[in-house]
Amino acid sequence: MFDVFVLGLTATAVSGLAAGAACHHGWLARAARKKRRIPAQWHLQARPLLLGSEQEVWHWLQRAFFDHHVLVKIPVIRFVSPRNEAEGQRSFELLKSVYCTFTVCAADGTVIGCLDVPGPQGLRASNRDLKRKLFDECGIAYAVVRDSNLPTLEDVRAAFLGEIDLSDDEEGAPAVLGQPPLAMPESEADDVATVPDTMRAADGATLVADAQHVDMTAMAAARSSLQAKLERNRKIRFTNFDPLSTGSGIVHDDGEHHFAVQWEDSFINPEEPQAPKGTKT
User: Among 250, 234, 257, which residue's Cα sits nearest to residue 135?
Assistant: First the structure.
């Protein structure tokens, strides 16, 4: 008799547990559906795309790269792609939430370089180091700048483009950066004293030759060289305009931190760019 009672009690308990588990599973499913359901009203409001400090850097970049496009907060996976599909998913998981404050690209959409502006809480050291290594391998320039300590327009163009600056040697007539060179009639050019080219390396170093007068042929060649360099995308290493390694702007994190999601398919299986109409493929 006792065994029958125990058996019945056990069966009741098992049935209760099963019913409870089923109810819990159903509750979780309903909660998940409710979470995915589009709300009847969004409790959100519009906000500026850029902070005040970022806006200042944005306007500065537009002056520096007057002949390029300055894009805002573009995810990294939009302009890099895996070399092989086997590594695509792993790379996507690491990069899916990584973006740069500003991305500079040419008229054809080719990315020239990226800049980050640390926010109020700083820039994660792991985030910065990841982008520094990634962009170095991809041949994309990278820099970290602050609105309170911006480099010159000349320096940032040199770091991203490796260009030559042609400027007047007269006192009180500094080089005008951020504007295309003005054409000069040949009849007036003979009376103007010109100066040698100033080479700006990727690290911002300046190599200046001895001042001398050059003829129109040399001047035209220098201008041609400048235009060629503007079109060339050099492999530039990380430009340390803002040495975070010695400052308080770094937010250190542990090795388990993951950069957490967008556009998985276009990253792992990117579409080939379409050729312009009228061209043969």
Answer: 234
Q: Three-state SS string across the chain, please?
A: CHHHHHHHHHHHHHHHHHHHHHHHHHHHHHHHHHHHCCCCCCCCCCCCCCCHHHHHHHHHHHHHCCCCEEEEEEEHHHCCCCCCHHHHHHHHHHHCCCEEEEEEECCCCCEEEEEECCECCEEEHHHHHHHHHHHHHHCCEEEECCCCCCCCHHHHHHHHHCCEECCCCCCCCCCCCCCCCCCCCHHHHCCCCCCCCEEECCCCCEEECCCCCCCHHHHHHHHHHHHHHHHCCCCCCCECCCCHHHCCCEECCCCCCCCCCCCHHHHHCCCCCCCCCCCCC
Sign of the Cα torsion 218, 66, 56, 123 reads negative
**Long-range CB contacts (within 8 A, 24+) of 254-258:** 257/124, 257/126, 258/93, 258/94
Q: Is 224 left (phi over 0), alpha (psi -120 to 50) or beta?
A: alpha
Q: What pLDDT score does 174 carry?
A: 36
If one counts every other C-beta atom within 10 angstroms of the C-beta of residue 18, the result is: 10
Ranges of the chain whose pLDDT falls below 70: 1-6, 163-216, 219, 223-281
Cβ contacts of 280 within 8 Å, gap of 6 or more: none
pLDDT (0 to 100) of residue 60: 95
Q: What percent of the chain has pLDDT over 90?
A: 29
pLDDT at position 256 is: 46
